[in-house]
Design goal:
Blueprint lengths: L1 H8 L2 H18 L2 H12 L3 H29 L1 H19 L5 H17 L3 H11 L4 H30 L1 H21 L8 H6 L15 H5 L2 H18 L5 H7 L4 H29 L1 H20 L7 H13 L4 H12 L5 H8 L1 H21 L3 H19 L8 H5 L1
Helix pairs in contact: 2-6, 2-7, 2-8, 2-9, 3-4, 4-5, 4-6, 4-18, 4-19, 5-6, 5-9, 7-8, 7-18, 8-9, 8-14, 8-17, 12-17, 12-19, 12-20, 13-14, 14-15, 14-16, 14-17, 15-16, 15-17, 15-20, 19-20
Protein backbone atom coordinates (compact mmCIF):
# COMPACT_ATOMS: atom_id res chain seq x y z
CA UNK A 1 0.00 0.00 0.00
CA UNK A 2 2.74 2.41 0.97
CA UNK A 3 4.70 1.59 -2.16
CA UNK A 4 1.62 2.07 -4.33
CA UNK A 5 0.98 5.42 -2.74
CA UNK A 6 4.55 6.48 -3.43
CA UNK A 7 4.36 5.39 -7.03
CA UNK A 8 1.04 7.12 -7.60
CA UNK A 9 1.57 10.45 -5.87
CA UNK A 10 5.34 10.87 -6.13
CA UNK A 11 6.71 13.68 -3.97
CA UNK A 12 3.90 16.21 -4.25
CA UNK A 13 2.02 15.22 -1.07
CA UNK A 14 5.33 15.43 0.77
CA UNK A 15 5.86 18.89 -0.64
CA UNK A 16 2.35 19.93 0.37
CA UNK A 17 2.85 18.60 3.90
CA UNK A 18 6.17 20.38 4.24
CA UNK A 19 4.57 23.63 3.04
CA UNK A 20 1.68 23.35 5.49
CA UNK A 21 3.92 22.46 8.44
CA UNK A 22 6.27 25.37 7.77
CA UNK A 23 3.43 27.81 7.06
CA UNK A 24 1.58 27.22 10.32
CA UNK A 25 4.72 27.19 12.48
CA UNK A 26 6.07 30.31 10.75
CA UNK A 27 2.72 32.02 11.20
CA UNK A 28 2.79 31.42 14.95
CA UNK A 29 6.40 32.55 15.29
CA UNK A 30 5.94 35.65 13.08
CA UNK A 31 2.99 36.76 15.20
CA UNK A 32 5.49 38.06 17.76
CA UNK A 33 5.69 41.58 16.24
CA UNK A 34 1.95 41.91 16.92
CA UNK A 35 2.38 40.68 20.48
CA UNK A 36 5.37 43.00 20.86
CA UNK A 37 3.04 45.97 20.43
CA UNK A 38 0.63 44.39 22.94
CA UNK A 39 3.45 43.81 25.44
CA UNK A 40 4.62 47.41 25.11
CA UNK A 41 1.14 48.61 26.03
CA UNK A 42 0.56 46.04 28.79
CA UNK A 43 3.88 45.99 30.62
CA UNK A 44 5.64 49.21 29.55
CA UNK A 45 8.87 47.42 28.60
CA UNK A 46 11.51 49.11 26.41
CA UNK A 47 11.82 48.01 22.79
CA UNK A 48 15.26 46.46 23.15
CA UNK A 49 14.02 44.67 26.29
CA UNK A 50 10.90 43.40 24.53
CA UNK A 51 13.03 42.24 21.59
CA UNK A 52 15.17 39.98 23.80
CA UNK A 53 12.72 37.07 23.59
CA UNK A 54 12.77 37.28 19.79
CA UNK A 55 16.56 37.46 19.71
CA UNK A 56 16.81 34.45 22.02
CA UNK A 57 14.40 32.66 19.69
CA UNK A 58 16.65 33.27 16.69
CA UNK A 59 19.73 32.12 18.60
CA UNK A 60 17.99 28.96 19.77
CA UNK A 61 16.77 28.30 16.23
CA UNK A 62 20.29 28.57 14.87
CA UNK A 63 22.07 26.65 17.63
CA UNK A 64 19.50 23.82 17.67
CA UNK A 65 19.50 23.37 13.89
CA UNK A 66 22.58 21.10 13.74
CA UNK A 67 21.07 18.75 16.34
CA UNK A 68 17.70 18.70 14.61
CA UNK A 69 19.40 18.18 11.25
CA UNK A 70 21.39 15.23 12.60
CA UNK A 71 18.24 13.76 14.18
CA UNK A 72 16.25 13.97 10.95
CA UNK A 73 19.11 12.24 9.09
CA UNK A 74 18.94 9.43 11.66
CA UNK A 75 15.25 9.22 12.66
CA UNK A 76 13.38 10.68 9.71
CA UNK A 77 10.91 13.57 9.86
CA UNK A 78 7.78 12.04 11.41
CA UNK A 79 8.92 11.71 15.01
CA UNK A 80 10.37 15.22 15.03
CA UNK A 81 7.18 16.67 13.54
CA UNK A 82 5.10 15.23 16.40
CA UNK A 83 7.55 16.51 19.00
CA UNK A 84 7.70 19.96 17.43
CA UNK A 85 3.94 20.35 17.21
CA UNK A 86 3.59 19.28 20.86
CA UNK A 87 6.10 21.92 21.97
CA UNK A 88 4.24 24.60 20.02
CA UNK A 89 0.93 23.64 21.64
CA UNK A 90 2.51 23.85 25.11
CA UNK A 91 4.30 27.13 24.40
CA UNK A 92 1.25 28.86 22.95
CA UNK A 93 -1.03 27.76 25.79
CA UNK A 94 1.51 28.80 28.42
CA UNK A 95 1.95 32.24 26.85
CA UNK A 96 -1.62 33.12 27.80
CA UNK A 97 -0.51 33.49 31.42
CA UNK A 98 2.79 35.38 31.10
CA UNK A 99 3.44 38.28 33.44
CA UNK A 100 7.21 38.72 33.23
CA UNK A 101 9.79 38.96 30.46
CA UNK A 102 11.64 35.83 31.56
CA UNK A 103 8.45 33.82 31.03
CA UNK A 104 8.15 35.11 27.46
CA UNK A 105 11.80 34.20 26.86
CA UNK A 106 11.29 30.62 28.10
CA UNK A 107 7.96 29.99 26.35
CA UNK A 108 8.58 31.80 23.07
CA UNK A 109 12.35 31.99 22.88
CA UNK A 110 12.98 28.36 23.86
CA UNK A 111 9.95 26.05 23.83
CA UNK A 112 8.07 27.44 20.84
CA UNK A 113 11.27 27.96 18.86
CA UNK A 114 12.39 24.37 19.28
CA UNK A 115 8.92 23.25 18.26
CA UNK A 116 8.85 25.46 15.16
CA UNK A 117 12.34 24.32 14.17
CA UNK A 118 11.05 20.74 14.10
CA UNK A 119 8.43 21.78 11.53
CA UNK A 120 10.73 23.91 9.36
CA UNK A 121 13.27 23.70 6.57
CA UNK A 122 15.87 21.64 8.42
CA UNK A 123 13.28 18.85 8.60
CA UNK A 124 11.86 19.09 5.09
CA UNK A 125 14.77 20.10 2.84
CA UNK A 126 16.70 16.78 3.04
CA UNK A 127 13.70 14.66 2.02
CA UNK A 128 12.46 17.21 -0.51
CA UNK A 129 15.91 17.40 -2.14
CA UNK A 130 15.85 13.62 -2.56
CA UNK A 131 12.33 13.53 -4.01
CA UNK A 132 13.03 16.45 -6.36
CA UNK A 133 16.34 16.43 -8.21
CA UNK A 134 15.76 18.13 -11.56
CA UNK A 135 13.33 20.66 -10.03
CA UNK A 136 15.09 21.06 -6.69
CA UNK A 137 15.15 24.86 -6.78
CA UNK A 138 11.41 25.01 -7.53
CA UNK A 139 10.50 22.46 -4.85
CA UNK A 140 12.56 24.08 -2.11
CA UNK A 141 11.28 27.53 -3.05
CA UNK A 142 7.68 26.31 -2.72
CA UNK A 143 8.39 25.12 0.81
CA UNK A 144 10.32 28.30 1.64
CA UNK A 145 7.41 30.41 0.39
CA UNK A 146 5.37 29.01 3.28
CA UNK A 147 7.37 31.34 5.50
CA UNK A 148 5.96 34.36 3.67
CA UNK A 149 2.47 32.88 3.60
CA UNK A 150 2.50 32.27 7.35
CA UNK A 151 3.94 35.71 8.03
CA UNK A 152 1.36 37.38 5.79
CA UNK A 153 -1.58 35.65 7.44
CA UNK A 154 -0.39 35.99 11.03
CA UNK A 155 -0.10 39.78 11.33
CA UNK A 156 -3.66 40.81 10.37
CA UNK A 157 -5.37 37.67 11.72
CA UNK A 158 -3.65 37.76 15.10
CA UNK A 159 -4.23 41.51 15.40
CA UNK A 160 -7.92 40.94 14.63
CA UNK A 161 -8.06 38.04 17.09
CA UNK A 162 -6.48 40.18 19.81
CA UNK A 163 -8.99 42.97 19.17
CA UNK A 164 -11.82 40.44 19.58
CA UNK A 165 -10.76 38.32 22.58
CA UNK A 166 -7.63 40.00 23.97
CA UNK A 167 -4.03 38.92 23.59
CA UNK A 168 -4.10 36.32 26.37
CA UNK A 169 -7.10 34.39 25.04
CA UNK A 170 -5.75 34.67 21.52
CA UNK A 171 -2.82 32.47 22.57
CA UNK A 172 -5.27 29.77 23.69
CA UNK A 173 -7.02 29.89 20.32
CA UNK A 174 -3.72 29.50 18.48
CA UNK A 175 -2.76 26.58 20.72
CA UNK A 176 -6.01 24.78 19.82
CA UNK A 177 -5.40 25.41 16.11
CA UNK A 178 -1.91 23.88 16.34
CA UNK A 179 -3.25 20.81 18.15
CA UNK A 180 -5.80 20.25 15.39
CA UNK A 181 -3.10 20.37 12.68
CA UNK A 182 -0.75 17.71 14.08
CA UNK A 183 -2.27 14.61 12.44
CA UNK A 184 -2.63 15.94 8.87
CA UNK A 185 0.92 17.29 8.95
CA UNK A 186 2.46 14.00 10.06
CA UNK A 187 0.40 11.88 7.64
CA UNK A 188 1.73 13.86 4.66
CA UNK A 189 5.26 12.59 5.26
CA UNK A 190 6.08 9.03 4.08
CA UNK A 191 7.64 6.41 6.32
CA UNK A 192 10.22 5.51 3.64
CA UNK A 193 12.53 7.42 1.32
CA UNK A 194 12.06 7.64 -2.49
CA UNK A 195 13.99 5.21 -4.65
CA UNK A 196 15.17 5.55 -8.25
CA UNK A 197 11.88 4.18 -9.61
CA UNK A 198 9.89 6.78 -7.66
CA UNK A 199 11.99 9.61 -9.04
CA UNK A 200 11.75 8.22 -12.59
CA UNK A 201 7.93 8.09 -12.39
CA UNK A 202 7.95 11.64 -11.04
CA UNK A 203 10.09 12.86 -13.93
CA UNK A 204 12.92 13.68 -11.53
CA UNK A 205 15.64 11.50 -13.04
CA UNK A 206 18.71 13.33 -14.25
CA UNK A 207 21.40 12.37 -16.72
CA UNK A 208 24.18 13.48 -14.43
CA UNK A 209 26.43 10.90 -12.86
CA UNK A 210 25.53 9.55 -9.41
CA UNK A 211 26.75 11.46 -6.36
CA UNK A 212 30.51 11.03 -6.37
CA UNK A 213 31.01 11.74 -2.69
CA UNK A 214 28.92 11.60 0.47
CA UNK A 215 29.91 14.84 2.18
CA UNK A 216 30.36 14.85 5.95
CA UNK A 217 29.98 17.93 8.14
CA UNK A 218 33.72 18.02 8.83
CA UNK A 219 34.62 17.86 5.14
CA UNK A 220 32.10 20.58 4.29
CA UNK A 221 33.45 22.84 7.03
CA UNK A 222 36.93 22.51 5.51
CA UNK A 223 35.79 24.31 2.34
CA UNK A 224 35.44 28.09 1.89
CA UNK A 225 31.99 27.48 0.37
CA UNK A 226 30.63 26.30 3.72
CA UNK A 227 31.70 29.51 5.45
CA UNK A 228 30.47 31.67 2.58
CA UNK A 229 27.05 30.03 2.97
CA UNK A 230 27.27 30.62 6.73
CA UNK A 231 28.13 34.30 6.10
CA UNK A 232 25.31 34.72 3.59
CA UNK A 233 22.84 33.26 6.09
CA UNK A 234 24.17 35.57 8.82
CA UNK A 235 23.98 38.70 6.67
CA UNK A 236 20.53 37.82 5.37
CA UNK A 237 19.20 37.31 8.89
CA UNK A 238 20.84 40.52 10.08
CA UNK A 239 19.50 42.62 7.20
CA UNK A 240 16.00 41.17 7.42
CA UNK A 241 15.49 41.37 11.16
CA UNK A 242 16.90 44.87 11.55
CA UNK A 243 13.58 45.73 9.88
CA UNK A 244 10.96 42.98 10.13
CA UNK A 245 10.42 42.60 13.88
CA UNK A 246 9.82 46.32 14.31
CA UNK A 247 7.83 47.00 11.12
CA UNK A 248 4.47 47.24 12.88
CA UNK A 249 5.86 49.30 15.77
CA UNK A 250 7.52 51.62 13.23
CA UNK A 251 4.25 52.09 11.33
CA UNK A 252 2.34 52.79 14.56
CA UNK A 253 5.03 55.31 15.55
CA UNK A 254 4.46 57.06 12.22
CA UNK A 255 0.78 57.44 13.13
CA UNK A 256 -0.82 54.57 11.19
CA UNK A 257 -3.70 52.60 12.76
CA UNK A 258 -2.56 49.24 14.19
CA UNK A 259 -5.01 47.04 12.28
CA UNK A 260 -4.54 49.00 9.06
CA UNK A 261 -0.73 48.79 9.30
CA UNK A 262 -0.89 45.07 10.13
CA UNK A 263 -3.12 44.50 7.09
CA UNK A 264 -0.78 46.42 4.77
CA UNK A 265 2.30 44.62 6.05
CA UNK A 266 0.48 41.30 5.91
CA UNK A 267 -0.55 41.90 2.32
CA UNK A 268 3.03 42.73 1.42
CA UNK A 269 4.23 39.57 3.14
CA UNK A 270 1.76 37.52 1.11
CA UNK A 271 3.69 38.52 -2.01
CA UNK A 272 6.58 36.47 -0.61
CA UNK A 273 4.75 33.34 -1.80
CA UNK A 274 5.03 34.56 -5.41
CA UNK A 275 8.47 36.11 -5.00
CA UNK A 276 10.03 33.10 -3.31
CA UNK A 277 8.68 30.58 -5.80
CA UNK A 278 9.64 32.81 -8.74
CA UNK A 279 13.23 33.35 -7.59
CA UNK A 280 13.62 29.68 -6.70
CA UNK A 281 12.29 28.58 -10.07
CA UNK A 282 14.50 30.89 -12.11
CA UNK A 283 17.49 29.83 -10.01
CA UNK A 284 17.27 26.42 -11.72
CA UNK A 285 17.90 28.25 -15.02
CA UNK A 286 19.99 31.37 -14.37
CA UNK A 287 21.88 30.16 -11.30
CA UNK A 288 21.40 30.49 -7.55
CA UNK A 289 23.76 33.48 -7.33
CA UNK A 290 22.03 35.77 -9.84
CA UNK A 291 18.61 34.90 -8.46
CA UNK A 292 19.69 35.64 -4.88
CA UNK A 293 21.25 38.98 -5.83
CA UNK A 294 18.01 40.03 -7.55
CA UNK A 295 16.13 39.21 -4.34
CA UNK A 296 18.58 41.28 -2.28
CA UNK A 297 18.15 44.29 -4.57
CA UNK A 298 14.36 44.18 -4.35
CA UNK A 299 14.55 44.04 -0.54
CA UNK A 300 16.87 47.05 -0.53
CA UNK A 301 14.30 49.07 -2.49
CA UNK A 302 11.70 48.16 0.13
CA UNK A 303 13.89 49.36 2.99
CA UNK A 304 14.66 52.62 1.15
CA UNK A 305 10.91 53.28 0.87
CA UNK A 306 10.59 52.96 4.66
CA UNK A 307 13.34 55.53 5.16
CA UNK A 308 11.20 58.14 3.38
CA UNK A 309 8.10 57.61 5.55
CA UNK A 310 7.62 60.52 7.95
CA UNK A 311 3.88 60.56 8.70
CA UNK A 312 0.52 58.74 8.47
CA UNK A 313 -0.49 60.45 5.23
CA UNK A 314 2.15 58.57 3.23
CA UNK A 315 0.07 55.48 2.51
CA UNK A 316 1.76 54.95 -0.84
CA UNK A 317 5.21 54.67 0.69
CA UNK A 318 3.95 52.25 3.35
CA UNK A 319 2.45 50.06 0.63
CA UNK A 320 5.63 50.24 -1.45
CA UNK A 321 7.73 49.32 1.57
CA UNK A 322 5.45 46.42 2.46
CA UNK A 323 5.30 45.09 -1.11
CA UNK A 324 8.98 45.36 -2.05
CA UNK A 325 10.26 44.11 1.30
CA UNK A 326 7.57 41.44 1.49
CA UNK A 327 8.02 40.23 -2.08
CA UNK A 328 11.45 38.83 -1.35
CA UNK A 329 10.98 37.93 2.33
CA UNK A 330 12.58 34.50 2.58
CA UNK A 331 13.51 34.51 -1.12
CA UNK A 332 17.21 34.05 -0.32
CA UNK A 333 16.38 30.92 1.67
CA UNK A 334 15.70 28.64 -1.33
CA UNK A 335 18.91 29.82 -2.98
CA UNK A 336 20.95 29.10 0.15
CA UNK A 337 19.38 25.73 0.89
CA UNK A 338 19.36 24.66 -2.77
CA UNK A 339 22.99 25.79 -3.12
CA UNK A 340 23.86 23.77 -0.02
CA UNK A 341 22.18 20.72 -1.54
CA UNK A 342 24.00 21.34 -4.84
CA UNK A 343 27.42 21.59 -3.19
CA UNK A 344 27.24 19.07 -0.33
CA UNK A 345 25.17 16.11 -1.49
CA UNK A 346 24.80 12.94 0.51
CA UNK A 347 23.26 11.44 3.62
CA UNK A 348 24.55 14.19 5.95
CA UNK A 349 22.78 17.07 4.21
CA UNK A 350 20.44 17.68 7.15
CA UNK A 351 23.33 18.07 9.58
CA UNK A 352 25.30 20.29 7.18
CA UNK A 353 22.29 22.51 6.59
CA UNK A 354 21.71 22.62 10.34
CA UNK A 355 25.21 23.89 11.08
CA UNK A 356 24.98 26.52 8.34
CA UNK A 357 21.63 27.63 9.80
CA UNK A 358 23.44 28.81 12.92
CA UNK A 359 24.42 31.80 10.81
CA UNK A 360 20.85 32.93 10.25
CA UNK A 361 20.13 32.48 13.96
CA UNK A 362 23.03 34.72 14.93
CA UNK A 363 22.23 37.37 12.34
CA UNK A 364 18.52 37.41 13.10
CA UNK A 365 19.10 37.59 16.86
CA UNK A 366 21.53 40.49 16.60
CA UNK A 367 19.36 42.32 14.08
CA UNK A 368 16.14 42.05 16.10
CA UNK A 369 17.75 43.19 19.36
CA UNK A 370 19.97 45.88 17.79
CA UNK A 371 17.02 47.51 16.04
CA UNK A 372 15.19 47.87 19.35
CA UNK A 373 18.31 49.18 21.07
CA UNK A 374 18.90 51.72 18.32
CA UNK A 375 15.34 52.99 18.78
CA UNK A 376 15.70 53.18 22.58
CA UNK A 377 18.91 55.21 22.23
CA UNK A 378 17.92 57.47 19.33
CA UNK A 379 14.13 57.43 19.19
CA UNK A 380 14.28 56.36 15.54
CA UNK A 381 14.75 53.23 13.41
CA UNK A 382 16.66 55.11 10.67
CA UNK A 383 20.12 53.77 11.56
CA UNK A 384 18.75 50.24 11.87
CA UNK A 385 17.21 50.42 8.40
CA UNK A 386 20.43 51.84 6.94
CA UNK A 387 22.42 48.98 8.47
CA UNK A 388 19.94 46.56 6.91
CA UNK A 389 20.82 47.90 3.47
CA UNK A 390 24.54 47.52 4.18
CA UNK A 391 24.02 43.90 5.27
CA UNK A 392 22.13 43.08 2.10
CA UNK A 393 24.82 44.64 -0.11
CA UNK A 394 27.60 42.63 1.55
CA UNK A 395 25.39 39.53 1.25
CA UNK A 396 25.26 40.05 -2.51
CA UNK A 397 29.05 40.05 -2.68
CA UNK A 398 29.39 36.94 -0.51
CA UNK A 399 26.84 34.98 -2.55
CA UNK A 400 28.62 35.86 -5.82
CA UNK A 401 31.75 34.05 -4.60
CA UNK A 402 29.78 30.76 -4.40
CA UNK A 403 29.82 30.33 -8.17
CA UNK A 404 32.47 27.59 -8.33
CA UNK A 405 31.89 24.03 -7.07
CA UNK A 406 33.21 23.02 -3.65
CA UNK A 407 36.27 20.76 -3.51
CA UNK A 408 37.40 18.53 -0.69
CA UNK A 409 40.68 19.37 1.01
CA UNK A 410 42.23 16.12 -0.22
CA UNK A 411 41.32 16.96 -3.81
CA UNK A 412 42.95 20.39 -3.50
CA UNK A 413 46.15 18.79 -2.19
CA UNK A 414 46.14 16.26 -5.03
Amino acid sequence: MEGGRRGLSYGWPVLAGAFFAYAISAGFMHSYPVYLVAFLGEFGWGRAETSVAYSVSQLVAGVSSPLIGALVDRLGPRLLLVGGATLLVIGLAGSAGVGALWQVIILYGLIMTLGANCLGLVISVPIISRWFVRRRGLAISIVQSANGFGRAASAPLVQLLISMVGWRRSYLVLSAVMAACVVPIVRAFPRVEPDAADRERAGETVRAAPVAHDWTVREAMATPHFWLLFLVYLLTGLGSFLVSLHQLAFAVDMGFDKLYAASVLGTGSLLAVVGTIATGTISDHIGREVSAILAYLISIVGVICALFITGPDQHGLLWLHACFFGLTWGARGPQITAKTADLFQGSHLGAILGVISIGTGLGSAVGAWASGLIFDLSGSYRLAFELSIVSYVVGCVAFWFLRRPARRHTEEIA
